[in-house]
Each structure stands twice: as C-alpha cells, then as structure tokens.
C-alpha cells in the first residue's frame, strides 16, 4: 500500500516543502514516528474542519496522539491504527466541546420508554387560542391559521393569501403581536 504523508501536521508549525511518498505495509508500522507521520495530516484536517481554527486543531491533534500513545499497540495493522485514532479523535473532540461549551453537545439516553407518554388532559389552551384567533382581524387570523395550525411554510401561506413572502412575514409578525396583546388583556 502506498500512502501519502507530510513530514508533520499541517499548520503554522509545519515546514514548507512538498509531499513525500512512503511505502507503508498493510501489516503495520515500524515505529511511533511512522504512525505519526502517516496519520497526523488527516487527524489535523479532521480537527481543523470541526473546530475551524489552527491553534485548537493543532492542540487537539497533539492530544489525540498523546492519548493514543500508551494504549495503542504498535503491532496493530494500519486499518486498526487508523480506526483507533479516529475513535480517539472523536473522544478528544467531544471533550473539547464539553470544556468549551460547558456541556455535551449530543446525549442519547440509554433507557428510552417502549410506550409513548400518556396524553395529558387539555387545560383549555386550545379554547383560549381559538378565542384569541376569533378576535383577530381576518388577515391576521388567516396567516396564523395557515402557518401554525396547518403547518404551511411562509411561501405557501403567502401564495394562499395572494401576497408576497415579505408581506406574509410582516402579517405574521403583526398578527403575533396582536394575539399576544389580546392574550395579555384576557378574554371576556
């Protein structure tokens, strides 16, 4: 197998120069330097794509290789090493976002209920919404019904009303303001 690699990670610290072609056997790498040389480029590119800036991408690339150094067997095959580095990169990136944003970005709960939650009794909100809609001028009521009760996109609602998209957005905005005022005033 022939693999293209750079002499180091891409970024400000990388030396200029062209690409070098090296022969990497499918069986494995000769040493840690070969692991780094063959994989640093794509790990850096992945990190740069995800975080969007060079300093963080370089730090995260270094963190991936530091985290993988101890548990990774040098006797592992090239595909195994790349898969392990990809998984390590995913974990390092998740840690970065957790530290940066203060929370995990995606959480999937293990225990999803088999049955849907029981439907709650109507607290009269539908009747109140209908009463507010009935008190709105015709065009305001119609735009809100089309957009929220029928789930139409703005463009379709505009076509149904015979107005431009911009006009439909203005109508919707004014209708929501009027509905909010009516709701705050209370219904007779």
UniProtKB/TrEMBL annotation:
InterPro entries: RNA_pol_sigma-70-like, RNA_pol_sigma-70_dom, RNA_pol_sigma70_r2, RNA_pol_sigma70_r4_t2, RNA_pol_sigma_r2, RNA_pol_sigma_r3/r4-like, WH-like_DNA-bd_sf. Gene3D superfamilies: 1.10.1740.10, Winged helix-like DNA-binding domain superfamily/Winged helix DNA-binding domain. Residues 129-177 form the RNA polymerase sigma factor 70 region 4 type domain. The keyword DNA-binding applies. The keyword Cytoplasm does not apply. Belongs to the sigma-70 factor family. ECF subfamily. This is RNA polymerase sigma-70 factor (ECF subfamily). It comes from Nocardia transvalensis.
């Amino acid at each position: 197998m022939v693999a293209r690699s750079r002499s180091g990670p891409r970024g400000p610290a990388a030396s200029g120069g062209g690409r070098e072609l090296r022969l990497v056997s499918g069986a494995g790498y000769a040493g840690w330097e070969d692991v780094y040389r063959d994989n640093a480029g794509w790990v850096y590119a992945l990190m740069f794509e995800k975080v969007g800036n060079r300093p963080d991408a370089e730090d995260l690339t270094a963190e991936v290789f530091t985290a993988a150094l101890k548990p990774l067997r040098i006797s592992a095959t090239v595909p195994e090493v790349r898969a392990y580095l990809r998984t390590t990169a995913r974990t390092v990136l998740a840690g970065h976002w957790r530290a940066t944003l203060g929370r995990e970005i995606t959480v999937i709960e293990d225990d999803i209920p088999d049955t849907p939650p029981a439907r709650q009794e109507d607290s009269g909100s539908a009747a109140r919404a209908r009463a507010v809609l009935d008190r709105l001028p015709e065009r305001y009521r119609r735009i809100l019904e089309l957009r929220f009760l029928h789930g139409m996109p703005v463009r379709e609602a505009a076509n149904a009303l015979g107005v431009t998209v911009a006009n439909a957005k203005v109508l919707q905005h004014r209708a929501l303001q009027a509905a909010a005022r009516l709701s705050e005033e209370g219904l007779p």
